[in-house]
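Task: sequence design from structure.
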């Protein structure tokens, strides 16, 4: 699916906020991060994700958010493939759509979390997903990729 199609569908569906998320895959594992206890949806395990800024493309937002949340700097050569999207209501009460992309890495990167937002990270195999506090939407997204 192309960016224009994704954004047009968001407008049609009355989406008020767009979030970009990434299944960062290495060695058949997905990078998942645990939200800080005092944050919205505290201690939930999620994909690296964050809000799309108005002036950015989906890909620009995704690269910025991944850098902010994990310290991983994606270069221009990384291939990004659309996976899916899911809807939820944000902490501010907005109808939100998370648009997810797959990023496959040849080497396991060093992960540096922002402790105000996330307190732990995990490289999870599909068999391990049920052992963690992960939403069904996120589990289904990861299972499509690993």
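Answer:
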């Amino acid at each position: 699916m192309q960016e224009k199609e994704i954004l047009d569908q968001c407008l049609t569906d009355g989406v008020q906020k767009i979030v970009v998320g990434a299944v960062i895959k290495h060695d058949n594992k997905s990078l998942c991060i645990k939200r800080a206890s005092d944050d919205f949806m505290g201690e939930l395990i999620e994909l690296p994700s964050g809000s799309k800024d108005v002036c950015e493309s989906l890909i620009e937002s995704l690269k910025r958010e991944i850098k902010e949340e994990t310290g991983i700097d994606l270069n221009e050569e990384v291939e990004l493939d659309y996976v899916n999207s899911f809807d939820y209501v944000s902490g501010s009460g907005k109808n939100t759509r998370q648009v997810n992309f797959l990023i496959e890495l040849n080497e396991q990167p060093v992960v540096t979390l922002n402790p105000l937002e996330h307190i732990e990270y995990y490289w999870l195999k599909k068999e391990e997903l049920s052992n963690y506090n992960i939403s069904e939407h996120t589990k289904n997204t990861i299972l499509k990729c690993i």
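The radius of gyration is 14 Å.
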